[in-house]
Amino acid sequence: MESSIGLLSHLSTEARQVIKNYSGSLPDRSPARLGELRSETRQAIEPAVTSIIEQNNFTIEKTTTQQIPCLHIQPSKVKVAWKILYGFGGGYVTGSPFEDLTIAAPISVATGAIMIIPHYRQAPENPWPTPVDDGFLVYQELSKECFAMVGESAGGNLGLALMHRAKSSGTPFPKAIALLSPWCDLNKSGYGLVDNDGRDPVLTKQHLDFAAKCYGKENNLAKSVCFYYWLSKLFFG
Predict the structure, then answer these.
(1) DSSP 25
(2) Chain centroid to CA 168: how far?
(3) 25/202 Cα distance (integer angstroms)
(4) How far apart, in whole angstroms, are the C-alpha atoms of residue 144 and residue 229?
(5) Are the C-beta atoms of residues 164 and 230 closer than 8 Å to each other?
(6) Contacts of 63 (CB under 8 A, 6+ apart)
(7) Do the Cβ atoms of 93 and 34 come closer than 8 Å?
(8) Rg, Å, the chain Cα set
(9) Can you say whether the dihedral through the CA atoms of 46, 151, 212, 3 is positive or negative?
(10) pLDDT digit of tens for each residue in the chain (237 aa)?
């Protein structure tokens, strides 16, 4: 890890310190221990989520939209009439609306917008297109009024997939969309994935390979979940 610090000198001081202090080993990501991984991931993030809940002025409530379970975030001061549809990360195999509160809740508070986070079903139990199907049911409901969309990691990929489906069905687009470190290339075609493997303290090529295989199953990833495919369809038909 030390040898990579110099290569990451363009990062903020805080980010470099996190990487420098990281001494843990990344967990094995395999179907056999996926249940353990999900539990460990939630336990690891829970203190940070608790801290966010204590620091921010908002309430959370479990709701249902079109039979899809959602987490509803409402800031104490709702400043805008539009809502935000949020897609949580985790490679489509881990994560939950609760675990992404560290990102989602501050956005809701800062914008003054109510945020809806669908708890889409996950792979490998529910591979593509199930998460998109779940997300689109909520998308359709929010699209009846002005809304925005935010997606983090796999949630960024989900955002693009939802927009593609919206275009195909004639459903209105969000007025704005923000993709936070979106998982763009599920085909893993970039050289950087191999060249930088081992430098990231959170993600490895093994994890991305595992998640993409679980999510895509036997489907053609280029047509089902790839960022470049969605962009070409969104802008060029």
Answers:
(1) P
(2) 23
(3) 9
(4) 27
(5) yes
(6) 69, 70, 71, 72, 116
(7) yes
(8) 18
(9) negative
(10) 444 445 556 778 877 776 676 655 666 677 788 999 999 999 999 999 999 999 879 999 999 999 999 999 999 999 999 999 999 999 999 999 999 999 999 999 999 999 999 999 999 999 999 999 999 999 999 999 999 999 999 999 999 999 999 999 999 999 999 999 998 888 777 777 788 777 776 778 888 889 999 998 876 565 555 555 555 555 555
Tell me the C-alpha distance between 58 and 96, whole Å.
18
Which CATH number is 41-236's, of 1.10.760.10, 3.30.540.10, 3.40.50.1820, 3.30.310.50?
A: 3.40.50.1820
Give the residue carrying structure tokens 């985790």: 90
Q: What is the pTM of this model?
A: 0.86
SS3 state of residue 92? coil
Name the nearest CA neighbour of 92 among 73, 119, 52, 110. 119
* CA 199/CA 183 separation, integer angstroms: 17
Pseudo-torsion of CA 176, 89, 15, 37, nearest 10°? 170
Tokens of 153: 């990691």
Cβ(119)–Cβ(152) under 8 Å?
no
